[in-house]
Structures
1.
Amino acid sequence: MKILVIGSGAREHALLWKLAQSPKTEDLYVAPGNAGTGAIAHNLNISPTDIEALAQSVEQYHIDLTVVGPEASLAEGIVNLFHHRGFNIFGPTREATKIESSKVFARELMGKYHIPCASGKVFSSLVPAREYVEQHSLPVVVKADGLAAGKGSIVAQTRGEALEALSDIMERRIFGSAGDKVIIEECLEGKEVSLLAFTDGETVIPMVPVCDYKRALDGDQGLNTGGMGSYSPPLFFGPVDIAEVQHTILEPTMRAMSQEGKPFKGILYAGLMLTSQGIRVLEFNARFGDPETQVILPRLKTDLVDILLAVVEEKLAEVKIEWSDNACVGVVLASEGYPGSYKTGFPIRGWDSLEPEVLAFHAGTKVNEAGEACTAGGRVLTVAGSGKTLAKARAKVYRNIPHLSFEGCHYRHDIAAV
Ligand code: AMP
Ligand code: GLY
């Protein structure tokens, strides 16, 4: 099979790395990819939201299956377009993607179908939202409705912060039309965990659970980022918890989407908080997570192509998905200044010194004129490693990171320090 992956991050590099292991894979393409993906796939210089150009490349290269990484392509309707053209594609339609692209839609769905989430209220104008904040107990969470690159949820400790967030979203419109509506939500407390699941609209099979780290600095300090690291499995979330989430959240959500006329096929990603009152949904995503995928896929024993095809063909019930007992830890190496402004173009060196089993998934990298991989983005690499225990996986990753070097490299030192 010829397979095309959409996206350019370490998530997509990890997908290609896993797809390359399948005997069914004949050739891999990625749009647009990065320096790392270029070593195992053909990089096509097409933006993930230029869905017409992507469809043309499917015809040009005789692609048999397309796998979508970023939510922007899904929200743009890539799956609808490809279905219309008769192409195989893994991911939900634009309508089903609303579970991620509209937090208001997700909240109303959860309310209607009794899926446990934080209590909250939706506002489409500033004045009543402000009044509500004035009366609400603190802390409180302010969320922009639409896609905001993971930055649309603000946990406000003070009324001033909450009012500021409302002004940012609804007055200064920092997220554009994604801020036409906001949700003001009770602030939950507890441990966070993500459970992603494959679903063909009928069958839901959870993956292994995973934790990610969103803040830039050690000890969950600093600004929110696209994700600075992840690990699997979290020891506080076992098989009983997974079964509970499957029965109380994943399956009811999948059924609810079908009942609403938006059958969901692809990855249903539940971001969860384990509160003293029970498990609550914080958010849904409609795709593989980043950097979650970089630690989930090294644990997957089953052929990924078989799973993706089973979803596309609605035969997921026939597939048995097996996971390694090994733990996996991934640490993101970022450019100095990220998530603020940063410089790029610095060569990345030390590849040959990595232990052979250590994985270095590329994100913001490109090949420079000298043929070397150099930095080209905020998040540069995810370094991932497996081990019999979390502690061993963690030790492996952290003893290898210093072998890699680029100017201004920074990373968190406390990923999986549990
Ligand atoms: P979201 O964009 O909804 O995934 O939220 C991003 C992050 O904000 C989550 O990972 C949580 O850390 C935090 N968060 C979101 N909703 C809540 C909530 N209701 N209570 C507490 N923290 C929240
Ligand atoms: N790591 C969270 C996400 O992929 O949205």
2.
Amino acid sequence: MSLNQSRKKVAVLISGRGSNMVSLLEAAKAEDFPAQIVCVGSNRPDAAGLQRARDAGIATFSLDHKRYGKDREAFERELHEELEAAGAELVVLAGFMRLLTPWFVNRWHNRLINIHPALLPAFPGLDTHARALEAGVKLHGATVHFVTAEMDVGPIIAQGSVAVRDDDDAQTLGARVLQVEHQIYPQALRLIASGAYKIDGMRVLASGS
Ligand code: GAR
């Protein structure tokens, strides 16, 4: 079997600039990386990351969620079709700012991962950096986790932390967290795509095989 045939096929979903997506594309260039990015999709046709993906020679698609009004499942059915058509085996959310319903999450059970800009279970939801500062935490960071039906809850694959500085504001803190995201997301994808892990409740354990 050639390397490309044995690599897990991964779709990346974005809504914005796509810096995490770029870090995954870069990591996937390594010969021994167990995943290949087969497509990048967005719910926002104007997402800057789409162009960055095209520039890297990756197939892209966009499905404007506004066209579906309140019918989240209609949007997700089309999203699901796009992912299947691309042959995706794993779906990676990288700044994908659209809530996914149980319909979609169940179809991709244990094959759908997300990065969140906080040390979960602290600070699920939005505005994590401002909320971390307000709460006075001294450590903040990012989490890669499997997606379950409940938002920002799911077995934790990887975390990285940064020290909060006295002179931080949400922007400076967020910039350092983003650097950590760019490190831990490729590491987490490497583990999941390799298959050398097991899930035990909320714990993801490297099985070493
Ligand atoms: C990242 O900080 C990611 O953790 C966050 O959006 C940003 C996307 O940046 N995701 C969420 O907040 C998901 N709830 P990017 O487009 O440059 O990767």
